[in-house]
Structures
1.
Amino acid sequence: MIPRESTSASQQRLVGEARWPMAIAVVAVIVLTLLLPRGLVQRPRWGVPLVEALLLVAVIIGDPGKIDRLSRRVRALSVTLIALLVATTLWCTIQLIVELIRGGTDTQSASALLAAGGIVWLSNCLAFGLLYWELDSGGPAARAHGLPAHPDFAFPQQLSPELAPQDWRPRFVDYMYLGFTSATAFSPTDAMPLRAWNKLAMMAQSTISLVLLGLVIARAVNVLT
């Protein structure tokens, strides 16, 4: 059982996390998208990445350094950015799956196919990690002011408080690990989903990863043989 907070949010020490890990992950997703073959990305090619980059700049300006500002505007910009990143990676994933099923030109070379598959898979890991990070317990700024008694994810440090410092908060790396393990183990590993939205998101991510890996590997073996 997750213990309730013994002090009010106003009495808790402010624990904000650095902005740069999130910014690096967003830039990585944008770059990975641009590395994909033209047939797998939206047109114009630079349209969506440019919007994502502008949203990232706006978020950084709105809450630079430590993420601890409780601002509806910054929160809305951040949620919009993450939603756009997730939508972009899902679009690229669907396009790649369609190409794999049809046997399109982008899947005729085993090396190109494996590269595209790896890029799409990694983009999904990063995008879903960002999604979990942004939506859990009201977002990073809200978590900086204190964890709620009933969070969206239950991390081991919350289930066993003696394993963590008193002011422990889940950081960006915890959600990146969650996104990676959901895509590889196809199930929760350390953090347990407690809400309907994150159970559905993890289920969707595991399904996408399973279908993508299965089709890419099968197609690559077929091309090589």
Note: Residues 17-224 form one domain.
2.
Amino acid sequence: MGKIFKSKPVNLLIGVLVSAPGLFRQIVEILGKNFGAIDLQSDILPFIFTDYYNKVMGDDIQRQFYSFERLIMPDEIAGIKVQTNNIEEVIASSKKYPMERPVNIDPGYINESRLILASTKDFSHRIYLKEGIYAEVTLNYRHGKYETFPWTFPDYKSQDYQNFFLQVRELYVSKLKSILKDWQED
């Protein structure tokens, strides 16, 4: 029989798609209030990998990723996805923006070996968590880089995204070492 160990904390990562560039400031403020300080953010990148969101968001969609200072436990991701869906609904219902869906918020997390995304959609490669939320391993970290899977979204395969994820992973490993050192000293 295997011994059960408590999971290590992970680094919360949130990707945001917007079709109204001024929305990024509002989103950063909302995410900070809900999930704490942002310790790293990506450049704003054009979302040119698919037209999946164009009908509801428009044509000029941009992406930015945020890493959060406070580490979370992996099982918190389902509740975070529910929260981000509620944030999307509040912004859409404000009717401040002409598009049906002005923002899409995708939470996930990074640990030493993978990038996990939370989703409301079930599929063969996703595992049910709770509250209608599923998780998928989107990227696998191996030999100093991220490897993709057949289901990995095209944008997550891009070098720009992966370079940012490597920075987040490096920051996470540093945070984790600090936490583990503190635990050992207690």
Note: The two ends are 29 Å apart (CA to CA).
